[in-house]
């Protein structure tokens, strides 16, 4: 699915904006995710699949619950696209609201951000707008920070005996992001 989206996104760079082909490629980018979501939702409703990451062990979700989950996902995607943040930043709190375990919520949000950021980096590289030395520096720095952060979080969970501090970290990061986004928007508005 990622390769499908990446290829179509790269093809969009070589067609005129708002032309017929531009909108055909945009609709094709939506077709596969919608199809996969419908297939997975049908499996959940029919009981062929189960949500194993739920904190409370419920039976398979009802159709209206799955519809709400899908609407949350679409809303998070739109907000993430409009605000320029990774989808995982928006999805993390939504997962917590849906009752998904904090550790699973954090990992899934990070996984979603990995795909959006890696696809953007690949597209920038192909368009020759990508400073490779900076990317290598920040990639190595992020890799080391992720390993250290994971080890520290695991030790804190073992020491405290609960994972609730992950919710505190997530909410703190969202708060700091919102404040910095507001400052950036105010700075841009003054120009």
From TrEMBL:
Question: What does the UniProt entry say about where the protein is found?
Answer: Membrane
Listed transmembrane segments: 20-45, 66-95, 134-153, 159-181
- GO CC annotations on file: Cul4A-RING E3 ubiquitin ligase complex; membrane
Question: What coarse category fits the chief subcellular location reported for this protein?
Answer: membrane
Q: Which GO terms describe its biological process?
A: protein ubiquitination
Q: Name one Pfam family in it.
A: TauE
| Keyword set, alphabetical order | Membrane, Transmembrane, Transmembrane helix
What is the membrane topology here?
A: Multi-pass membrane protein
Keyword Lipoprotein found? no
Which family is annotated? Belongs to the 4-toluene sulfonate uptake permease (TSUP) (TC 2.A.102) family.
Q: What is this protein called?
A: Sulfite exporter TauE/SafE family protein
- Look up and give the organism this protein is from: Triticum turgidum subsp. durum
